[in-house]
Design brief:
The complex is a heterodimer. Chain A is an alpha/beta fold. Chain A folds into two domains: about 25-145 and about 300-315, Rossmann fold (3-Layer(aba) Sandwich); about 145-295, Rossmann fold (3-Layer(aba) Sandwich). Chain A has eleven helices and nine strands. Chain A has helices spanning about 25-40, 65-80, 100-110, 125-130, 145-160, 180-190, 220, 245-255, 255-260, 285, 295-315; strands at about 55-60, 80-85, 115-120, 135-140, 165-170, 195, 215, 225-230, 270. In chain A, strand 5 (about 165-170), helix 6 and strand 6 (about 195) form a beta-alpha-beta unit. In chain A, helix 5 (about 145-160) packs across helix 6 (about 180-190). Chain A is globular, with a radius of gyration of 20 Å. Chain B is an alpha/beta fold. Chain B has one domain (about 10-70, about 85-150): Rossmann fold, CATH 3.40.50.2020. Chain B is built from four helices and eight strands. In chain B, strand 2 (about 30-35), helix 2 (about 40-55) and strand 3 (about 60-65) form a beta-alpha-beta unit. In chain B, helix 1 crosses helix 2 (about 40-55). The longest helix of chain B is centred in the N-terminal third of the chain and has 18 residues, at about 5-25. The chains are: A alpha/beta, B alpha/beta. Chains A and B meet through helix 1 and helix 11 of A and helix 3 of B.
Chain lengths: ~325, ~180
C-alpha cells in the first residue's frame, strides 16, 4: 500500500509445508504469530475473511480423518477459498490410478493448494516435486503431521507464554506416531525439553539419534513435566503384540486420576484425538481442569488458516 | 528530511479532532474509536482517552489489522511482506459511530480495506475517517472527514509518522 519504511525483516518463503524438521525456530514462531491474527475470525459475526478468494484448496485424503480434514476444510472456507474433497474410496484410486496421476489431474483442474494425507511417508514431498501447486502435509506415514505439531506448540505457548525451558512428555505409541515426531521438532526448536515415554516395543529403533530423552516409566516422569501429550494407541497400525494386554498398557502408561495427583497442579494434559477413553487416558482426566484437548482443536483451525495463508503468500511472491 | 508536524502540532490535531467529533455528534449516539495498525492504533488510543475525558464516559477503543483485506495479497510485493496481526475490538460495533483512525491517507487502499474489515464485524451507524496526514495521490474514491495536515509531496517520497509509543518521539517528517 503506501510506502513503508524500509527495514530488514523476516520473509516467509515456503510454498509447501511438508514437515517441521526442516523449519527454523524463526519460521515456526512466524507461523504461530500469524495464527494469532486468525483466531478472531471464528468469533465474529461474519466468520470469513477474503485472502484466498478465488483459490481452490483440495483435501486429498488417502487415510481416514475427521478432525484434520474438517479443520482444513473449515480453515479454507473461512479464508474464502473453494474446497474440493477427495476421498480414496469414492475416487479413481480405487480403480488403480496412481498418486501422481490423481494429482496431475487435480492440477489440470486449476487447484492452488493440495492438502494431502497419505500412509506412505514422503508422499507430500513427492507431490511437491512433481506438480506445480502448494502442498500441505496433513500426515504422511510415520513421518510428520506438521499442523498438529504447530497447533500443539501454539496451545502450549498461548497458555504458558513460551515453550522455553518447559519439560514435555509425549506418551504412548511413539514408533507409529507422526504426531510425536512433529511435536518433537516444533517443541525442541522452540526451546522445550521433550521426553518420549512408552514401552520399549513402541519406541522407534533409532530413538537415540533424536533430540529427546527416553523413559520407559510414566511414574518416573509424571511429577517432573509441565505438559503431557498422550498419544492414541493406533490399533490399526500395530503389528504383532507390542504389549501383553490393553489392561496392562493402561496400568503402566495410562493417565489416570491417581497418577494426576502426583503431577504439577498446572500441568497441561493434551491429546491429538481421537481418544480411546479408559485406555491411554481416564475420562475424568480427559474432561478435567488440566485438559486442553478441545483448545487444541480450536487452535488447530487458526493454525491451519495461517498455514494456508502463508503458503499461498509464498506462491504469490513466486518463491 | 523535513519536519512537517512537531509534537505540539500533533497534540493540537488530537485536541481539535476531539472537539470536532464532540460538536458534530449528538451526545445520545455511541462513539467508538478504531485505529488501523500500527500507527493508527496509537493515535486511536490517544483520541479515545481524550474523548473519554471530555465526555466523561468511556469511549471504547479498538485496533484493526487490515492485512487479510488488502488488495495486493496475490501480487508480488517489492516492499515488506504483509504480516497478519491481531484485530482487537472488544466491543460490538453495531449502531455506533466509528471514528476510523490512521496515520497517513495516501492511495485510499488501506481505508477501503479497513471499511471492508469493519463491516465483517457488524453494521456501524457511520464510519468517519480521521488521519494525521492527508497526502495527495488517491487511487480510490476515498476522502478523510478529519485531517491534521494536507500535503502533496512527490510520489517517490516517504511521509513518516513517528510517535512516542513506537518511535520514541512525536513528529511527522518527509524523507
Amino acid at each position: 500500500m503506501a510506502l513503508k519504511r524500509k527495514n530488514k525483516q523476516f520473509r516467509w518463503r515456503r510454498k509447501h509445508l511438508l514437515g517441521l524438521r526442516d523449519l527454523s525456530a524463526e519460521e515456526i514462531t512466524y507461523i504461530l504469530d500469524t495464527a494469532e491474527g486468525f483466531e478472531q475470525i471464528s468469533t465474529r459475526s461474519v466468520k470469513k475473511a477474503p485472502p484466498l478468494r478465488g483459490k481452490v484448496v483440495c483435501n486429498l485424503f488417502f487415510e481416514d480423518s475427521t478432525r484434520t480434514r474438517n479443520s482444513f476444510a473449515l480453515a479454507a472456507s473461512r479464508l474464502s477459498a473453494d474446497v474440493i474433497e477427495f476421498t480414496k474410496k469414492v475416487s479413481s484410486v480405487s480403480k488403480g490410478e496412481t498418486l501422481l496421476d490423481t494429482a496431475k489431474n487435480l492440477e489440470a483442474m486449476g487447484i492452488d493448494i493440495v492438502v494431502i494425507r497419505h500412509s506412505a511417508g514422503g508422499a507430500p514431498k513427492f507431490l511437491s516435486r512433481n506438480i506445480n501447486v502448494c502442498v500441505v502435509n496433513a500426515g504422511d506415514g510415520f513421518c510428520e503431521h506438521p499442523t498438529q505439531g504447530l497447533l500443539d506448540a501454539y496451545t502450549i505457548r498461548k497458555i504458558k507464554g513460551s515453550l522455553e525451558g518447559l519439560k514435555i512428555a509425549i506418551v504412548g505409541d511413539i514408533a507409529h506416531s507422526r504426531v510425536a515426531r512433529s511435536n518433537m521438532w516444533a517443541m525442541t526448536k522452540l526451546g522445550a525439553e521433550v521426553i518420549f515415554v512408552g514401552p520399549p516395543t513402541l519406541m522407534p529403533t533409532q530413538v537415540g539419534r533424536l533430540p529427546v530423552s527416553v523413559s520407559y516409566s510414566l511414574d518416573e516422569v509424571i511429577e517432573k513435566v509441565d505438559v503431557i501429550n498422550m498419544l492414541r494407541i493406533q490399533f490399526e497400525r500395530l503389528g504383532g503384540n507390542p504389549f501383553p494386554s490393553v489392561r496392562e498398557y493402561s496400568h503402566y502408561f495410562g493417565l489416570t486420576v491417581e497418577r494426576m495427583k502426583r503431577a504439577k497442579p498446572d500441568i497441561l494434559v493434551m491429546h491429538p484425538g481421537p481418544i480411546n477413553r479408559g485406555l491411554e487416558m481416564e475420562s475424568e482426566v480427559a474432561d478435567g481442569d488440566n485438559s486442553v484437548i478441545l483448545e487444541q482443536v480450536k487452535n488447530g483451525l487458526a493454525v491451519r488458516m495461517a498455514v494456508l495463508f502463508l503458503v499461498n503468500q509464498a506462491a504469490a511472491q513466486n518463491y | 528530511m523535513k519536519v512537517i508536524l512537531n509534537a505540539e502540532q500533533i497534540e493540537q490535531f488530537l485536541r481539535n479532532l476531539a472537539g470536532q467529533i464532540i460538536s458534530e455528534n449528538p451526545p445520545r449516539l455511541d462513539i467508538a474509536v478504531i485505529g488501523i495498525r500500527s500507527r493508527g492504533e496509537i493515535l486511536a488510543q490517544r483520541l479515545s482517552s481524550r474523548l473519554s475525558q471530555e465526555l466523561d464516559k468511556d469511549i471504547p477503543c479498538g485496533t484493526l489489522d487490515i492485512t487479510l483485506y488488502r488488495d495486493d495479497l496475490n501480487t508480488p510485493q517489492s516492499t515488506e511482506q504483509p504480516k497478519v496481526r491481531t484485530t482487537e475490538i472488544g466491543f460490538d460495533i453495531d449502531d455506533k459511530i466509528i471514528v476510523l483512525v490512521d496515520d497517513v491517507l495516501y492511495t485510499g487502499r488501506s481505508a477501503r480495506a479497513a471499511m471492508d474489515a469493519l463491516i465483517d464485524l457488524g453494521r456501524p451507524r457511520a464510519i468517519r475517517l480521521a488521519v494525521l496526514v492527508d497526502r495527495a495521490g488517491r487511487e480510490f474514491p476515498v476522502q478523510a472527514d478529519y485531517a491534521g495536515y494536507r500535503t502533496d509531496v512527490a510520489p517517490g517520497k516517504l511521509v513518516q509518522v513517528n510517535l512516542v509509543e513506537s518511535d520514541g518521539k512525536d513528529e511527522v517528517v518527509i524523507e
